[in-house]
Amino acid sequence: MSQSDTNSDLRSANRARFELELEFVQSLANPFYLHSLAQQGILNQPAFVNFLKYLMYWKEKDYARFILYPHALHHLELLQHAQFRAEIGKDEWREYLNQKQFDHWRTWRDPSRIETTVAPTADSQPQSANSETHNAPMANGS
After folding, report:
1. How many CB atoms lie within 10 A of CB 79?
2. Structure confidence at residue 117 as a pLDDT band (50, 70, 90)
3. Distances in whole angstroms, Cα of residue 19 to Cα of each of 22, 51, 65, 78, 135
4. How do residues 10-65 score in pLDDT, each as one tens digit?
5. What is the rounded CA–CA span in Å between residue 39 and residue 80?
6. DSSP label at 124?
7. How many CB atoms lie within 10 A of CB 97?
8. Which pLDDT score is estimated for 141?
9. What is each CA distance from 80 to 22, 23, 56, 62, 75, in whole angstroms?
């Protein structure tokens, strides 16, 4: 076996592992899948908890750019906590997480909820959907 064959095999193995781990991390965006893992007792297994810790490298910029479902990274972070792993097995927690995720998807691109990034001037108010609740003092003390 030549060096190039060995490198090709190694590349193929690395690519397969990358794709498998990417697919698994993205599946963590689904609250029903998390609930199922908890119901089966998988989230309590020490080997699985260690695997979740290992997967945290997906939060690094070089890897996170491949994630299509950003909630997957948030849920991966939550899964690092024993309390979340225990609670997600309850139906009401699954529904709560599902509703929060839906609410985020429903509103995150709503232009009326996006605050401008331009600093307000002394004669203008901040532009936001809830300007009454965001009336902070201006930088000039007014």
Report:
1. 22
2. very low
3. 5, 16, 13, 22, 47
4. 999 999 999 999 999 999 999 999 999 999 999 999 999 999 999 999 999 999 99
5. 17
6. S
7. 22
8. 41
9. 18, 19, 9, 21, 9
Beta-carbon contacts of 57 under 8 Å, excluding residues fewer than 6 positions away, are: 63
The residue behind tokens 């699985």 is: 48
pTM: 0.69
Q: Please tell me what DSSP assigns to residue 30.
A: -
66: which DSSP letter? T
Of 130, 96, 98, nearest to 113 by C-alpha is 130
Contact 37, 28 (CB under 8 A): no
Q: According to DSSP H, which parts of 28-121 are helical?
A: 31-39, 46-54, 61-64, 71-78, 82-87, 91-107
As a residue count, the chain comes to 142
**What is the distance between the alpha carbons of residues 74 and 28, in angstroms, rounded to a whole number?**
9
133: tokens are: 């609740």
> How many alpha carbons fall within 13 Å on the CB side of residue 49?
13
